[in-house]
Design goal:
Layout (H helix, E strand, L loop, with lengths): L13 E2 L2 E2 L5 H4 L2 E3 L1 H7 L1 H9 L2 E5 L5 E6 L10 E8 L5 E5 L2 H6 L3 H11 L9
Antiparallel strand pairs: 1-2, 3-7, 4-5, 5-6, 6-7
Helix pairs in contact: 2-3, 3-5
Protein name: SWIM-type domain-containing protein
GO molecular function, one term: zinc ion binding
Keywords: Metal-binding, Zinc, Zinc-finger
Length: about 130
């Protein structure tokens, strides 16, 4: 991974205004994501999110989402992915996704799609 990608391990299990009460595996795997860097340095990931139609629904916590790719542009073993995305008070994004792309690249079209939907006021990304 390119060191300018700004991906790093999440320092804590903080979600929203409090600390997560149960240890949550995806929080340990959260990465800091610069979506501007993704657009510039990993444009194929960003473009896949633009080209795909997604159904995004809120999960059991304010930072959790289920996301389903509808057109088959995004190739993954599971049709529905689980994802977490939050924005820090400093404007940095921290995210996690259950897809293979996230495991390999620490960013994926699913997280990009969540960010795009938030930019269009179609959903809200919680602030830490």
């Amino acid at each position: 991974m390119d060191s300018t990608m700004e991906a790093s391990k999440s320092p804590s299990n903080k979600i929203g205004s409090g600390t997560a009460s149960a240890r949550c595996p995806q929080l340990d795997e959260s990465r800091q994501i610069s979506f501007e860097s993704v657009k510039e340095q990993q444009s194929k990931v960003w473009e896949a999110a633009v080209e795909e139609s997604f159904t995004i629904e809120k999960g059991g916590r304010n930072d959790l989402f289920t996301i389903e790719a509808e057109d088959g542009v995004v190739d993954d073993a599971l049709p529905v992915q689980n994802a977490s995305l939050i924005e820090s008070s400093a404007g940095q994004f921290w995210g996690w996704c259950s897809c293979r792309d996230f495991e390999r690249e620490h960013v994926c079209p699913h997280l990009c799609a969540i960010r795009m939907h938030a930019a269009l006021d179609m959903l809200t990304i919680p602030r830490e």
